[in-house]
Queue: 3 jobs
Job 1
Amino acid sequence: MFELFSPGFGASGILGLISLALFFYGHTVAGFAGYETVLLFMIGLGFIIAEFFVPGGIVGLIGGALVIISLLFTGESVVHMAYSILIAMAIAIIGMVVLVKFFGKNLHLLSKLILKDATTTEEGYVSNVNRIELLGKEGITLTPLRPSGSVIVGNEKLDVVSDGSYIDSDKKVKIIEVEGSRIVVREIKEREEKS
């Protein structure tokens, strides 16, 4: 667990590899395991490493299954080894939770696989400019708005939509809403102009 939460390969990784080698060596010398379990473990480990380069997850699942099977058949009793593996996994999960929650460690292994950058407005990424300064301005329709069309406001031609009603060309309109690139206009009736 410590090796997963530290950058690069260090002392905890070396200790883990030495422990695995001693585990398999001890069980092989005691006569509980043969070289086929060591070979099965190596193949499984190779599949797990290959999972980093092959998408899909199937190769990693096969590798994990081969590693667990090799560990199960390494001991004198499969049931005893299953209990030992479950206890080791529980301790590893508890250790991982402690490292993350109490020490604030991040899993460096996944930091290169997961994109953490975001295109936020604080970073300067803007998909479109919100033209709030246009709110309340008046213009003339260049095309009929059914409900979208073009309007000229001052010297600028804008693509707009009406507030839902049909507006003919050469009519006075007022910008009532600006939401990103969406500009909503409403026709100015004659009675509104007088008031």
Job 2
Amino acid sequence: MLAFVKNPTSYNTTLRTLLQEPGQKHILSAHSHAETDGQDFAWLWDVDFEELAPQVASLVASGNKAEELAMRFKYAGVPEDRVTVIHDRPGALDYALRQAGPGGTLYALAGYTPLMELRRVMDSRGWVPPFWQQ
């Protein structure tokens, strides 16, 4: 599942939907501070990651603010040994998919720029059509 999350309201709404699914979750959280994404990441502290933390089986933090994102999840209660920082978007996606395993579900939660980067990777691999063809 690939979800666009751009602020606390959209993130919390997405998390509530995700938390309705049973079991442990494999998460890829990708954010950047490109001009189109906004340069202030303080809003991440307004996201209810604490509700998600008990269900995180694995989490990959990606982007040019990956360490800050990983720290936010740590403070939310996600054990450090379940969090991996991978800046490279294709590498983060590949690692996160391996963590989810065959038949598993990966929840990719991304800001605008990382979302478009992940879509390009998925498109280049033939997994999804270009977004304008849907």
Job 3
Amino acid sequence: MSARYITTTLPYVNANPHLGHALEFVEADCLARTARLAGDEVFFNIGTDEHGAKVAKNAENEGRDPKEYVDDYSGRFKSFADKLNISYDSFIRTTDLVHIRAAQEFWKRCAEAGDIYKAEYEIKYCVGCELEKTDSELVDGHCPLHPNLPIEIRKEENYYFKFSKYQKELLDHYASNPDFVVPSERLGEITSLAKSGLKDFSISRKCDKLSWGIPVPGDEEHVMYVWFDALVNYISAIGWPEDEERFKKWWPVTQLAGKDNLRQQSAMWQAMLRSAGLPFSQQIFIHGFITSGGQKMSKTLGNIIDPMVIIEKYGVDALRYILLRHASPFEDSDLTLETIHNLYTDHLTNGLGNLVARVMKLSEEHLKETVIETPVVRADSVNDFQFNKAMDFIWEHIAGLDEYITNEKPFSVVKNDPQGGKEMISSCVKQLFAIANMLAPFMPETSQKIVEAIKANKKPENLFPRL
């Protein structure tokens, strides 16, 4: 049995959870559940990123204290994760005292390495990303991720991190570890960025401009820049620096992140780790965005798909199914309400749900008991982050069993040849049990309902009612 550490990025608490958060949570959960079924010991971390200018501004706009504001929104994300049946072991908040202490110690170690200095710079800054931008990252003078927000020109004295110092070490690591960032296209992107030159980045803000942050050790006039603070969660969640044994047990980590986090996770954070004398992450999986009707979801366009609305109408496992099978693991994916409804009807109501009803009705009517065999865990595709391919494999079995029942007609055979018919039905139940166990990391509630129905030898209520 091996120890495996898996983490999502921490959602920023400046808005309610959305479909992109659901995608990352569910992908990470599927990976964690698959690892546990394979016999690994897993530590699965999620949480919330709670400092920074956007949080302070939103709290002010709502007439609330920042801590009250983040407590509220962090609670929303935790409830959201629970609703999605996310099997996390840790929900860390960047306002937790254990994290604050770790972030300050991390700062000290980077400073001791000679990688933090104070300087005055004029920068081009995207408020949406809370990041400074180089000219090469801008399109027509705007951030491509936030084209409607003006780029601010800022000139101030801040602390900076010597990102440029780690250019060669990062490039060497990318070259010698071709699976460090997946898919390979994203590794190519970050390699190109590093080759073009890494620019030292700001890691603090003046308290008179932003007080909502972790104080910089030894300088009460500055607080840590939100990205520097938040990235440390990956090690504070596993006991660093206070519990060295626990940290060594779990580190390094498999990280999941969206493509807008490529630079932060696979370059900035890795350089910071080396500065603090810590090993690189194990692997970073970068997923795409979810669009709707060919466009980015926005209130203005009216094309936002609220995951809670989908759950309310179709159920949690229906949403998990759609995100894991019909959203590309690596590229952007387009979903509409119509597409979601059709997938639910075709693949869940008429597919899996109907199959379970057919098999268990036959079993209940003709078998006194069922024989359950230990399933074989298939994890290859999931460990390669190809969740859709893994689910395609399961649905091939679903289609195959459905075709067998239609063609071989055990419901007719059992009338003329009771013993032969019962053997055919028993075989169907065994295949259904295997399908249920394969579904466990993807659709855990559905898997459990099928297993319980088989053990009770009773047809369950419709798993996916027709809507």
